[in-house]
From TrEMBL:
Subunit structure, as described in the record: Heterotrimer of A, B and C subunits.
InterPro entries (alphabetical): Asn/Gln-tRNA_amidoTrfase_suB/E (IPR017959), Asn/Gln-tRNA_Trfase_suB/E_cat (IPR006075), Asn/Gln_amidotransferase (IPR018027), Asn/Gln_tRNA_amidoTrase-B-like (IPR003789), GatB (IPR004413), GatB_C_1 (IPR042114), GatB_Yqey_C_2 (IPR023168), Gln-tRNA_amidoTrfase_suB_CS (IPR017958)
Protein name according to UniProt: Aspartyl/glutamyl-tRNA(Asn/Gln) amidotransferase subunit B
Positions of the Asn/Gln amidotransferase domain: 327-474
SMART domains: GatB_Yqey
Gene from which this protein is expressed: gatB
Source organism (scientific name): Methylovorus glucosotrophus (strain SIP3-4)
Amino acid sequence: MQWEVVIGLETHTQLQTKSKIFSGSSIAFGAEPNTQASAVDIALPGVLPVLNQEAVQCAIKFGLAVNAEIAPRSVFARKNYFYPDLPKGYQISQYELPVVGKGSLTVQVGDQEKTIRITRAHLEEDAGKSVHGASAGMSGIDLNRAGTPLLEIVTEPDMRSAAEAVAYAKKLHELVQWIGICDGNMQEGSFRCDVNVSVRPKGSDKLGTRREIKNLNSFRFMQQAIEYETRWQIETLEDGGTIQQATVLFNPDTGETRAMRSKEEANDYRYFPDPDLLPLQITVEDIAKVKAVMPELPGDMKARFEREYSLSAYDASGLTSSRGIADYFTAVVAQAAEPKMAANWVMGSVAAKLNEQDQDISASPVSPLQLAGLLKRIADNTISNKIAKEVFEAMWAGEGDADSIIEKKGLKQVTDSGAIEAIIDEVLAANAAMVEEFRAGKEKAFNALVGQAMKASKGKANPAQVNEVLRRKLGA
């Protein structure tokens, strides 16, 4: 029997606010345990939550970015369950009336585009954190994270492979950073995914029993977890077993998932409207204010780069793969650099060095202004492309801007036709055999002579002039 995997994602996105969603406590990462937990966060008797308006604006931004419905009225609910890191005994979340409704996100998977439907995105507070091994044989509770604002983004079960799920998660990860609502730091838990996986006979429209893989904070782990879980479910069914709905954890060391607990349904949480919080009202004017300060979205910027700079779809897509790269490229072009050349260098030499050092473009030691200066010296024939790479390496090492490095190292390109002719005359005299090979019809010999000329000039001769003078002297 052929099987089909069905995948849906729930993504917890930590919102980039200064304080928690219902209190004024800081959400800064790395503080000493329990130093950022206020009376509201630890649920002391008599305290009341107050909604953080900045969190609401973040939710509106996301809704606009995925063309979603933004509810004019949404309601906060109490999600009841007991766990040591949940001091109130319930989590304030949204249930029947979320702030963001149906939307979509289109992703690229190989050479195919796929649109993933977003069911909803709702505001909620995070729980605290259990700290195991804090003392010998004991666990501790850190409530610094309790009350941190989250936007939980839920998809329809539209994905049919691990590759599609990872493509969606990556696109969502980049989008929430692009619009400035989340820092995207997966190691710190700012962006973590729960993946619902089920399998069914290929061609069936009935969903199988799902298992939820919790708290995946790495795209690589997500891929591995989905692939393992898919194989496990198929093997279980083919061996005559049944799938029990469950919450499972992925172990990166073994590459396997294991059941943690039976999966709860909504009625297990006994949701009811929170009596301490009024319904959230969002007006048309509220949405307009947020829309007015929204950055240009990746798809719109990609289309603009193609239209204004005559870039290919491939180049424009690469340049808008992250907000940082797009801003860097835009800053280079703003210094009058030729767009296609700028695109080649940003996605070529700059990206290669960043990948080599595992750095974000914000950490580039070569600023957009410096790169533009280098590109101008290529364009005006001060240096060749080959010499430019040497200059770029020096710039990356912090030796200064392009002009000072060119001057200091004597790298200015030789464009004097008399000097180039003298070099070529010497090369022709010293390589009579190559000259004869070329005249016998071997084009490779010409390339070899060009190489000899460039070597004799220490790479400084203008390559186009070398080619032109050499062909003239060879009568080609």
